[in-house]
Amino acid sequence: GVEVGPQPQGVARADVLDKMRKIVKHGLDFVQLFNEGKEFPLCTIEVFKIMEKVDYPRNKNGEIIAIIHPKLQDQDWQPLKNGDPLFLTLDGEVIPYQGNCTVYPTFINEAAYYEKKQAFVKTEKIKLTAKHLR
């Protein structure tokens, strides 16, 4: 499966559809070239590994008391460093990210994840090496 986003549920976006088509085409091109006997050299790629799911700040009754900060909104896969704005309380107070390393949030403020108590997912950028293929 291929999931390309972010995009709201029930919304068809031309730019996201175009990205999905390109990804599927590259995958099919690889399969065809592999089946034709093409050799592929060793390569290294950057990927994002899930670290943890992060909930919204809540009060003692479990009610959300802060929303995603505007500077974080729509910044999926972008670096988030210690001290960067993370949440904004309903009173206007900024809650900064407090972490000992740079992370790459994704699924930021996705409507489908509110019921799962998930404001975003923290990921780390790592490198994977694929062996030479014949």
Care to describe what's here?
The protein is α+β, with helices and mostly antiparallel strands and 134 residues long. The protein has two domains: 1-38; 42-130, N-terminal domain of TfIIb (Single Sheet). The protein has one helix at 14-35, and strands spanning 43-54, 66-68, 85-89, 94-96, 120-130. The strands form two sheets. Strands 2-3-4 form a three-stranded antiparallel sheet, with no helix packed on it. The mean pLDDT is 92.
Would you spell out the secondary-structure blueprint of this structure?
Blueprint: H1 14-35, E1 43-54, E2 66-68, E3 85-89, E4 94-96, E5 120-130
Antiparallel strand pairs: 1-5, 2-3, 3-4
Give the terminus-to-terminus CA distance. 25 Å
Structural class: alpha+beta
Number of domains: 2
Shape: elongated
Mean pLDDT: 92
Q: Which CATH architecture of the largest domain is right? A: Single Sheet
Instruction: Give the low-confidence spans.
Output: none
Number of strands: 5
- Total of helices: 1
Gyration radius, to the nearest Å?
19 Å
Which band does the percent of strand residues land in?
A: 25-35%
- Strand arrangement within the widest β-sheet reads 2-3-4
Q: What brief labels describe this structure?
A:
134 residues, alpha+beta, N-terminal domain of TfIIb, 2 domains, two-stranded antiparallel sheet
In short:
The chain has one helix and five strands; from the N terminus they run H-E-E-E-E-E. It is an alpha+beta fold.
